[in-house]
Write a structure and sequence with these properties.
- This protein has about 900 residues and is an alpha+beta fold.
- It contains 33 helices and 27 strands.
- The strands form four sheets. Strands 10, 11, 12, 15, 16, 17, 18, 19, 20 and 21 form a ten-stranded mixed beta sheet that branches.
- Strand 25, helix 23 and strand 26 form a beta-alpha-beta unit.
- The N terminus is likely disordered.
């Protein structure tokens, strides 16, 4: 064994899987008896430890302070300072409290995001068994170096990327990298350089799990050079995206801040320059108006609305880890979904039995033994050759089915479990048949010979041999076949090859079955006995689509959301499932090799027109997501494996599977599905749209009502009239309405037809043209109402204090009426459902009415706010103004909708 390191690559070689094992040994200057410990130490010093780099951490204090780096938040803090200068301590405290709570929520959520790379570290095994200088030893995984020889057996987690030198019945679960539910067969053979990761029979990758068998592998890559290391590197380079809502709120905050400062400056200049007011007095008035103008409760109400959306999504099996993801789902235009377990059941099902005389469909899905055989010409029972095939599938089988709460569970290989279910559908009782045909010997399945054989003794001293395996391999060992009556016929190999090809092209996994009868049972089953077989037929398997996924995809289509399947499975299988799910009548399929073959610019077109991406690796998924985003799409991406983590983080909404998902995937995602069900994603999209609708309703209610109060005060200043409200009364209105009516819109249910609308434009401003119109129109109506009440009071000879009391009550009535109008932006509000309200709305109105009665009639409140009792006739007049206000808004909404003035409400 060489002791030099001159030939050890300093950079990773990508095509280890295409090189013969002896060539890899020479390339790494190693041998099958391993490295010398001293040489291993030198290589470790050169290549570094076999660990993933620790993610960079943002100091906690800096992360907390960054929560305040928002224009609206900074403006609120300035407003709080101004309120404190004026002595309005309650208002200042409320604003500071709202801002602080908002910062704490953001701080906690971002802290969870930094755990994603840490979860990848946990995928690495702590120790490994190696051969060094011909001796077996157990060493820490971190000390492995290229050229080390590692021993593998069932239950081990692969400690580094290995080129297999030997493999015996070796099966490795690579789901974390490929997403495939069936363990990969490993042989140690070299494959084509362009083979997809899941087809590399001679490789074992770091972090994957040995499901069965034994192996000996040569370390070819460690640390960040492994496949899981590449994923970690990609994950660290993915920049978190700002959600559409956060972009809009930040933009709104900047514009609102500039507007507020400009208005305040103009008012100050007007009051001092044109009205001759003392500059200190003018400053106090302007600051009071600014405090009234600031929607200090808006960030908190948005957070509460998102939190309520989180609760509603949890009921529908979608667990939200980051609040803004709730709303982003509502803007989703493309859902990129994994296939296995999300769109499908992740339960193999025998769907077809092919014999010499017929192709028999089998109904049912999953491991539940419920279903029937679609017999040709209405036959009363299975033909003899089909029954023998089903018996062979049950006897040459090590799996068992168990019924438990919630369904059936398989112990053993998924395809063998499907064969047990097939036998039970045929009326066979597994335990009884197996007891009546005791197994005498067996040849376990191995990737080298690609079949399993079992020998069963008969009462007459003879025996039957049942064989199942790769259909072309079983066919090659057969010399005859059975007809429907059970008679032997010469083998028609060409016909069977056509049937195998047809099944594979329809996306089915296929097994072949055969038998051989011995007049005298052999003493021992060997490979020589597995010959001259009678070919029984084929069984086709699929992982059937979830029934609810079909309806969910139809809902996506009506909602204008495209669904794309991105899977590690073979193209034919994925295309067949896509057609069954209704992704498209003729699904367009592209493979990972197709993605590699195009430039980033060409990928934009490919991503837009392709329905299924098959045989993909992490880099492919990441490129597809980025291509869709470059086209302006808002992408939701599902995933469960470590290989999905970079694309989950890159997507606008990353959705991890809760049951079968790895911790790395869950940490990289914003949403975790508790039931791994695609239908839950669509339900969450509906909730996301409702959340966004409710946030818009909150803004549509808050800004016009605040604007109406401020406009009335400004108009009085400009016209030289008596101010319609005192500063304490303004603060009272802000306080009582913000904590009641300002919150209830967060609890609104979905409007009818929420999933019948196209996705909203993520680039559209939060204050759309319709919203701006509403702010202006309602503010003017409020101002008109204020001056109408002031005029009414003057005609009745009421004093200024009574008039101001009526104005405050009138504003509360108008805001209650406007609340009912704004609850339904896309339909009329004058309906029984609209009038009935929700419990939250009714409770809030009750609190406001009680507070206003106290404000108006309690002596201590009259002294505090300088109010007066309102007469019955004046109260009726106020209610009349409120009713007229509501009718005007309903007519306005009707005219705008019929005239299609604003697209968002048409």
């Amino acid at each position: 064994m060489s002791m030099t390191t001159s030939s050890v690559p300093s950079a990773p070689v990508e095509d280890w899987h295409a090189m013969p094992a002896d060539a890899v040994l020479r390339q790494l200057d190693s041998a099958s008896d391993g490295l010398d410990p001293a040489e291993a130490a030198r290589r470790l010093a050169r290549h570094g430890p076999n660990t993933l780099p620790s993610p960079p951490r943002t100091p906690a204090l800096l992360r907390f302070l960054l929560q305040f780096n928002n224009a609206l938040i900074l403006f609120l803090l300035v407003a709080a300072a101004m309120a404190a200068v004026l002595g309005h301590w309650v208002d200042a405290a409320v604003i500071v409290g709202v801002v602080t709570v908002n910062a704490i929520v953001g701080f906690v959520q971002e802290g969870k995001a930094e755990q994603a790379l840490g979860a990848l570290q946990a995928m690495l095994a702590p120790t490994a068994r190696v051969v060094r200088a011909g001796q077996h030893a157990t060493v820490p995984v971190a000390t492995l170096a290229p050229g080390d020889v590692v021993l593998l057996e069932a239950g081990d987690r692969v400690p580094a990327d290995l080129r297999l030198l030997r493999a015996r019945a070796l099966l490795i679960d690579e789901a974390i990298l490929t997403g495939e539910s069936v363990a990969s067969v490993k042989t140690g053979h070299a494959v084509d350089a362009g083979a997809a990761l899941g087809d590399r029979e001679g490789m074992a990758y770091s972090g994957t799990l040995v499901a069965a068998g034994q192996g000996l592998g040569l370390v070819v890559a460690t640390g960040s050079h492994t496949e899981i290391g590449h994923i970690s590197t990609m994950l660290s380079k993915v920049e978190p995206l700002t959600t559409p809502l956060l972009r809009q709120i930040n933009g709104f905050g900047r514009r609102f801040t500039v507007l507020s400062i400009a208005v305040a400056a103009l008012l100050f200049a007007y009051a001092v320059g044109l009205k001759g007011m003392d500059w200190v007095e003018a400053l106090m008035v302007v600051v009071a108006i600014a405090v009234a103008l600031v929607p200090e409760g808006l960030p908190a109400v948005i957070t509460i609305t998102l939190a309520i959306g989180v609760q509603r999504m949890a009921v529908r099996h979608a667990i939200v880890r980051r609040l803004p993801a709730v709303e982003t789902l509502g803007a989703t235009t493309v859902i990129c979904s994994d296939k296995t377990g999300t769109l499908t059941r992740n339960e193999m099902t025998a769907c077809r039995v092919v014999t010499e005389t017929a192709s028999i469909g089998v109904s049912g899905a999953g491991y539940a033994p419920l279903g029937a055989f679609d017999l040709p010409d209405g036959g009363a029972g299975l033909p003899a050759n089909a029954r023998r095939l089903v018996e062979a599938g049950l006897l040459c089988n090590d799996a068992h089915l168990h019924q438990q709460a919630g369904g059936w569970r398989v112990d053993g290989d998924p395809m063998e479990g499907a064969l047990v279910a097939l036998a039970m559908k045929a009326g066979l009782e597994p335990d009884a048949l197996r007891a009546g045909h005791p197994r005498a010997d067996e040849i376990p399945f191995d990737a080298q010979h690609r079949f399993m054989a079992t020998l069963h003794g008969l009462a007459d001293g003879g025996a039957e041999l049942f064989v199942k395996g790769a259909p072309e391999r079983v066919l090659a060992m057969s010399s005859s076949q059975l007809d429907a009556a059970g008679a032997r016929l010469p083998l028609d190999a060409a016909w069977w090859e056509g049937q195998i090809a047809a099944a594979a092209s329809s996306g089915e996994r296929v097994l072949g079955f055969a038998l051989r009868r011995f007049a005298q049972a052999p003493q021992q089953l060997d490979f020589d006995a597995v010959d001259e077989l009678v070919f029984l037929g084929l069984v086709g398997f699929i992982d059937p689509p979830r029934p609810e996924a079909l309806a969910a995809i139809a809902d996506c289509r009506s909602a204008g959301i495209a669904v794309k399947m991105i899977t590690g499975d073979h193209g034919a299988t994925a295309a067949a499932i896509a057609a069954q799910l209704g992704l498209a009548e003729q699904p367009v399929v592209a493979t990972g090799q197709d993605v590699d073959a195009v430039s980033d610019a060409e990928l934009l077109t490919l991503a837009r027109h392709t329905h299924v991406f098959a045989r993909t690796n992490p880099a492919h998924k990441l490129r597809v997501v980025r291509a869709l985003q470059a086209e302006g799409e808002v992408v939701a991406m599902t995933g469960d494996g470590v290989n999905d983590a970079p694309s989950l983080k890159q997507a606008n909404v990353g959705i991890a599977m809760g049951n079968k998902g790895t911790e790395a995937a869950k940490e990289a995602a914003q949403i975790v599905l508790a039931d791994d069900n695609f239908a839950s994603i669509v339900a969450a999209v509906s909730e996301g749209r409702t959340v966004y609708d409710n946030i818009r309703k909150v803004i549509a209610w808050t800004l016009p009502t605040n604007g109406g109060e401020v406009l009335a005060i400004v108009a009085a200043m400009v016209l030289g009239l008596t101010l319609p409200m005192t500063p304490p009364q303004i603060l009272w209105i802000n306080m009582i309405l913000t904590i009641t009516l300002g919150l209830v819109l967060a609890f609104e249910p979905a409007e009818p037809g929420v999933m019948g609308r196209r996705p909203r434009d993520p680039q559209a401003p939060l204050l759309s043209p319709f919203m701006l119109w509403r702010v202006a129109f309602v503010s003017v109506l409020f101002t008109a109402g204020v001056f109408a009440v002031m005029a009414w009071a003057e005609r009745r000879g009421l004093g200024t204090e009574a008039a101001r009391t009526m104005v405050v009550n009138m504003l509360c009535v108008l805001e209650i009426c406007y609340l009912f109008n704004v609850r339904y932006l896309h339909m009329r509000s004058f309906t029984w459902r609209g009038a009935r309200g929700t419990p939250a709305v009714l409770w809030a109105i009750a609190v406001v009415v009680a507070a206003q009665l106290a404000f108006t009639y309690l002596p201590w409140m009259q002294a505090l706010f300088d109010t007066r009792a309102v007469a019955l006739v004046d109260g009726v007049a106020i209610l009349g103004i409120g009713l007229a206000f509501m009718i005007v808004l309903e007519v306005e909404k009707l005219l705008l909708r019929r005239g299609k003035v604003f697209a968002e409400i048409s």
